[in-house]
Known about the structure:
globular
Amino acid sequence: AVQRARGPVSGYYLLASVDLARDVSGQIGRAAEDQRIYLEVLGRTLAISASVTGLCLVMGFPVALLLTQVQQRTADWLMVLVLLPFWTSLLVRTAAWVVVLQKEGMVNSLLLKLGLISEPLTLIYNRTGVLVAMTHVLLPFMILPLYTVLKDIPPQFMRAATSLGAPPATAFIRVYLPLAAPGVAAGSLMVFILALGYYITPALVGGGSDQMLSYFVATYTTDTGNWGLAAALGALMLATTAGLYAAAHKLSGGRALAMG
């Protein structure tokens, strides 16, 4: 293994990053079962990133829509609240969620006081904690592109649709949403790509089965000094991100990051 990996140019670690290896005859095949972990980690990373993106979209769209409906002065103050998390470091925000979500934290204390639960819930060091904390951190990156697009949609379009007999829900789905699609695409792509590379938040609030690909990159660079494998995993993450961006760009007709 050392002989195969020590050359100036080697595919040893690139193969290992996708759970492949060369046998003694030089043929490429699946790695040993106890070494096949990285594709599972990549799938977990994609699943967590997609879940966070969906949560940010569900929560961010109503906020962005509200910002377009209120007076400008009120919208300015609400935007300050949206941007408020940027004034605090990521580490501090994540540590705050550790306090809030623990068994003696504010969430469990409130639920117990309201009688909604009989014993504290496990909200931290699992997937729930990762999704909650990452959604909070990345939500502004969804709201800002959405607001940029929604504020430029003429309100008379919806009024025209309803005046022609379309129910409000139909007018929203067939008129408003297509016009908002560039903002949805831009916000979703931005949040998803940012979520792919998250390390601190899953490391602090997630469990052992919730660590993402960036955790292993950091481990191999800082703890074990395996720079070759760290670089290969980084290349895998970069290739995945580039592929997803290219797919989104093609599906959106070149408007994946358009915000107006």
